[in-house]
Amino acid sequence: MARSSTFVDVAIIGAGPYGLSLAAHLRRRAVEHRIFGEPMGPWKTNMPPGMLLKSYPWATSLSDPDSEFDLKRFCAERALPYHDELMPLPLSRFVDYGEAFQSRYVPAVERKSLIRLEPGAGFLRATFDDGETVEARRVVVSVGLSPFKRLPPEAALLPAELCSHSSEYGSLDGLDGREVVVVGSGSSASDLAALIHERGISVSLVARRPKLQFADGPRHRSWLSRAIAPMSGIGHGWTLATCAKYPQLIQHLSKDLRIRLANHRALGPLGGAFVRDRVVGKIPALLGQEIRHVGTHNGKVMLNLVDPCGAERLMKADHVIFATGYKIDVSRLRFLNPALLQHLQLVDGAPQLSAHYEATVPGLHFIGPAAANSFGPVCRFVCGTDHSARHLARHLSAVLARYRPALQLRPLDRTVLP
Ligand SMILES: Cc1cc2nc3c(=O)[nH]c(=O)nc-3n(C[C@H](O)[C@H](O)[C@H](O)COP(=O)(O)OP(=O)(O)OC[C@H]3O[C@@H](n4cnc5c(N)ncnc54)[C@H](O)[C@@H]3O)c2cc1C
């Protein structure tokens, strides 16, 4: 809580929904901690302005100890329109909500980046980009998805000015006047394509899938359909509803089942319901296409595409955006020192975690998307913040209590007594 010199009980790396929620719970429990990162960073800089969230507003709240400051309450306080399901949540409103949450519950975020994390004697040593070194009994990594963008091998053949990943937008200014191809069929692909098209930029979609799919629009559901396929914050159906409500149960499943569940089609990969009409019939889409080869010619990208019947076609563009998602692979976290990496047991690239989100390196915890292979698909969404924040704050408060000095009793100051 209060800033200590160079030693702290808990260092939280990341100030997105997961890090902020945990910090709010630790603060309530008076667990000494520091939190580092840009508040709501990737939501402000790595997602295009105008984007609509695909999760339901009721399932897009950060977690505070009294469950009192959810998105609904934020909108009510500011007289902003709100509906649990029937309206999309604009990115800018979610960012405002996250920042309001931060100033209310986590006032002391330190905007700096971790560049090295290494083992010490009974603690972990974290070095930041301003040169400060912090020794922490516990380090909680909550760096989200940004370090794990997935690019197809073909992208490595292209110069940076001709290709990018969807996570690099942000502002679309650099695309004005260019002919753009977006590769992918998930929500990032359809969101970006719609926003680029609405800016008056020529854009096409290219995808391996034979059909663009979008989430169902909000609609009234009878009690029967709700009973057959209950609604949860990460989609309909008993599997997802159970995963959303009881992430701790997933721990006990086999490794293969956990990996399958982590990648379950929770809210995707589909276009968001509200973006369908902005894409279908408006943006040219070449579907069922594999990229066989990419190259360049006269400063343009050349995509050699092949359909399932083997027919080839050549496509030309000024810029190609790969909206090809993310794959958790902790070896890509450059701040992890090789000695730590070596002791991390992995499940398909993600850390194997205990029931307390602790990796096989004692004192090192992971929350958010990196925890999905141990706690299921809810960790890939904002609505997973509640379980990790509540559970981990309770656990850390209990295990760190043994380091706290016993209450010091001072003699009564008689001068102020009557
Ligand atoms: C395009 C897109 C749309 C999405 N839409 C939805 C949606 O509609 N609903 C939903 O529930 N989820 C959505 N998600 C998923 C969502 O982004 C993640 O589930 C959520 O952001 C994870 O929160 P987080 O706190 O783990 O990380 P993030 O929100 O990604 O925050 C990461 C934090 O880590 C910090 N950080 C990173 N590296 C370092 C470092 N080295 N040192 C210090 N700090 C560091 C950053 O500054 C930032 O503060 C979407 C994701 C994407 C990419």
UniProtKB/TrEMBL annotation:
Molecular functions per Gene Ontology: oxidoreductase activity
Domain FAD/NAD(P)-binding positions: 9-228
InterPro entries per record: FAD/NAD-bd_sf, FAD/NAD-binding_dom
One Pfam family this sequence matches: Pyr_redox_2
The protein's name: Cation diffusion facilitator CzcD-associated flavoprotein CzcO
Highest classification ranks of the organism: Bacteria, Pseudomonadati, Pseudomonadota, Alphaproteobacteria, Hyphomicrobiales
